[in-house]
Request: fold
Amino acid sequence: MRTADIIALENRYVLQSYSRAPLVLERGNGVYLFDTDGNRYLDCVSGLAVNAFGYGDYELLAAMQEQAAKLIHVSNIFHTVPSVLLARELVERSFADRAFFCNSGTEAWEAALKFSRKWGNTTFAKPKFRFIAMHNSFHGRTLGSISTTGQPKYHQGFQPLLGGIDFADFNDLASVERLVTDETCAILVEPLQAEGGIHLATPEFLQGLRQLCDSRGMLLVFDEIQVGLGRTGTLWAHQPYGVEPDLMTLAKALGGGLPIGVTLMRQKVADAIKPGDHASTFGANAVTCATALAVMRKLTEEGFLAGVRDRGEHLVERLQALQQRFPGQLKQVRGRGLILGMVTERPAADYVAAFRERHILVAVAGPQVVRFLPPLVMATEQLDEVVDVFGDIVQALA
Reply:
């Protein structure tokens, strides 16, 4: 079928809840994607941080195929091998004592909200049920997730939202402290606000939140759905801060392209959860968990994350040099590792379209931030190509 025919069918039969690019992607190889017209694109979106190892990775495909030949799905009323091994891997490499499996980031966040409230409502003589979330945050698209997302544009038309949520300013500890009450059960935060414009938390902020939670009997909940699993150059985005949460949500890169979500928690939270409190039909899917084990093996191979940090620092330096070359059009470079944003004078969508015309795929992180999410395996030379093309685009648009 022709590209125009496929797009016409999509317009006819698929709910129009996305603004899609005018191309049809057909296959991938390495860090490249190919459309139905035969065009090749250098990919700096990675399925929105999902495809950490690009496309066609042999080890991930082998894990999928081997497990699919043995067992795809049963139910969580039975034990399976891959989910138990993956839970052990995640727990032993993190702060956590327990793992809950589901199918997406927003599901993992919903689980974190439920677990936090159950803990707050059953641990104390006076129940704790309120949340403090951050302005400009993003936690998903379900009702609970948008209720804790600090961007009003995601709320429009879906009110009334979940109650008991207060919003503080990101990187402003005093604004959080002012909102704490005896009913506050948890503080919700992304170590790096991704969809909100690529904003890094300061060490003082995360460390202050940890101290505040410890002193006032609250949980600290980290959303690392987009920024965890090596994206910032460390396995967990919070590691450079010397701060650990009580719960953390993961998804995206963990499944190697297959749907997965995980909520990690300390034992004190797990103790509040009883059989029947929460569930997921497809959570802990055997094929997905086997693939996630392969992802974890690759991420934790000696030298891999150091290479991500090196390439990330190189890309930052190149983007900063470009910003200094065009200070009127390019305002600031944000981020860490291989999740970076360039703040632009004109709408970021203009640059995204221009990149696509030059066969490079990038995304936005707000109306005036161009977001770069290359596969973690992208070579320095290919990153240089992206920056060189960016310079050509800025000059052309200027």
